[in-house]
Amino acid sequence: MDAAIQPEGTPRRLYFDATLTPYRSLPPAGFHILMGAVGGVSLTMGVLFLVSGAWPVFGFLGLDVALLYFAFRLNYRSALAREVLRLDDAEMAVERFSPSGHARRWSFQPAWLQVRHDRASEYPSPLVLASHGRSLEIGSFLGQKERTDLADALVAALARQRLPAHLR
Q: How many domains does the chain have?
């Protein structure tokens, strides 16, 4: 049944649903171990400098540990960003959430939607959804292989969505 004449309240058929999140190679447990090791080495070195009379070095070593800690915390905070992609009978919706939780939403008509991605590029190429003169880059935090896999999955989902209802 066409989405334009679909009775209100009828559930839409979902063809694609994915949540994209940035990858972080160091899990929280590894972060605590790393900070403990760096803090221990800095404390040991700081005490040695303090005993030898170079007391200002102790403070700078503590400052280094604090800056490293805050840099990692910012990195983990940025990992809270995500993109939610959903393709149903009526629309391709993209919701982008910032680390602070602020959301933006884009909607595309699936019949005219194009998935653009240069698979052959030796450099990371953007994955772009385009329709009616509008375009949106998605998955900017993904690697080249993940973007290619996502592009393939989106193209396949769009092909299924565009099939006549009796062939789906």
A: 2
Residue 105 structure tokens: 């939403």
Q: What is the pTM of this model?
A: 0.75
Could you give the angle at the alpha carbon of 19 between the alpha carbons of 159 and 7, nearest 5°? 55
- 74 and 137 together in one domain: no
Question: At residue 109, what is the residue type?
Answer: Q
Which residue segment(s) compose the domain that 48 sits in? 28-78
pLDDT digits (tens, 9 = 90+) for 144-155: 999 999 999 999
- Examine residue 105 and state whether it is found in any structural domain, yes or no: yes
Q: Is residue 4 in some structural domain? A: no
Burial class (CB in 10 A: 0-12, 13-18, 19+), 92: buried
Is residue 69 within 8 Å of 62, Cβ to Cβ?
Answer: no
Asked whether 137 and 127 are in contact (CB, 8 A), the reply is yes
61-76 pLDDT per residue, tens:
999 999 999 999 998 8
Note whether 103 and 96 are within 8 A (CB). yes
Comparing C-alpha atoms, which of 117, 119, 121, 115 is closest to residue 156? 115
- CA gyration radius for the chain? 24
Domain boundary among 61, 78, 95: 78
Backbone angles phi, psi at 14, to 5 degrees: -95, 125
